[in-house]
Design goal:
Elements lengths: L2 E3 L5 E2 L2 E2 L5 E3 H4 L1 E13 L2 E14 L6 E4 L3 E6 L5 E7 L1 E5 L4 E12 L4 E10 L4 E12 L2 E10 L6 E3 L3 E2 L12
Antiparallel strand pairs: 1-4, 2-3, 5-6, 6-7, 6-8, 7-10, 8-9, 9-11, 10-11, 11-12, 12-13, 13-14, 14-15, 14-16
Length: 179
C-alpha cells in the first residue's frame, strides 16, 4: 500500500504548522462532496432530482460507484415537471457505469396518489426502467395494507407486482369476476 504524507502550512502569527497526516493511495481516488443536488434528465426532459447530505465517489472501484451514506431523497417527475413519486432512504449506492442504484435502510416511497411503499432494500434497473426487491414489502393504499416478499414496479409506482402477496388486496369493480 502506497502512502503519501501531506504537509500543510498555515499562518498563525509567525509560526508555521505542519500536518503529519498520512493519506493512502486509496483515499486519493475517492472524491467527497457535501449537500449535493443532482438533476437527472433524458432527452432534455428533467426526470428526477436527487438530494443527499454526502456524496462519496470512487471511480477506481470495479465497478465504479457513488455512495450516499447520510440519507437521500429522490423526486421523480412527469413530462410537465409534476412530482410523480418521492423516494427516501438512509443509504444508497449509484453505479455510474450502468446508472443502476441500490437504495437501502428504511426505504420509503410515496406517489402522487398518496400510496406508500416501505421496504429495507430496492434496486433501480435503469435499462429496464424498473424497481426490484426480494425483501419484505408493505404497500399502503388508503385503508388497505398489502404485504409481500419481493416486488417489481415502474418509476412512478403506478404499476406494481408484489410477490408472495398477503393482506388486503384492492380490486377495481370492473375487475371482479362476473356472477
Amino acid at each position: 500500500m502506497a502512502c503519501i504524507t501531506l504537509y500543510s502550512t498555515g499562518c498563525t502569527g509567525d509560526t508555521i504548522s505542519k500536518s503529519n497526516k498520512v493519506v493512502t493511495k486509496d483515499e486519493l481516488t475517492i472524491d467527497r462532496a457535501d449537500s449535493v443536488t443532482v438533476i437527472i434528465s433524458k432527452d432534455g426532459h428533467t426526470k428526477a432530482r436527487l438530494r443527499t447530505k454526502e456524496f462519496v465517489q470512487n471511480e477506481e472501484a470495479k465497478p465504479p460507484y457513488l455512495d450516499m451514506n447520510k440519507g437521500l431523497k429522490v423526486e421523480f417527475y412527469d413530462d410537465s415537471l409534476n412530482i410523480e413519486s418521492t423516494l427516501t432512504a438512509k443509504t444508497a449506492r449509484f453505479y455510474t457505469a450502468n446508472n443502476n442504484i441500490l437504495v437501502q435502510d428504511s426505504v420509503f416511497v410515496i406517489n402522487n396518489k398518496g400510496e406508500k411503499l416501505l421496504t429495507e432494500q430496492m434496486v433501480w434497473n435503469n435499462e429496464l426502467q424498473k424497481f426490484y426487491t426480494q425483501k419484505q414489502v408493505q404497500i399502503i393504499r388508503g385503508t388497505s395494507v398489502t404485504y409481500g416478499t419481493g416486488l417489481e414496479a415502474n418509476k412512478d409506482f403506478s404499476w406494481i407486482r408484489i410477490f408472495n402477496q398477503r393482506g388486503t388486496i384492492p380490486v377495481e369493480k370492473d375487475q371482479m369476476p362476473a356472477e
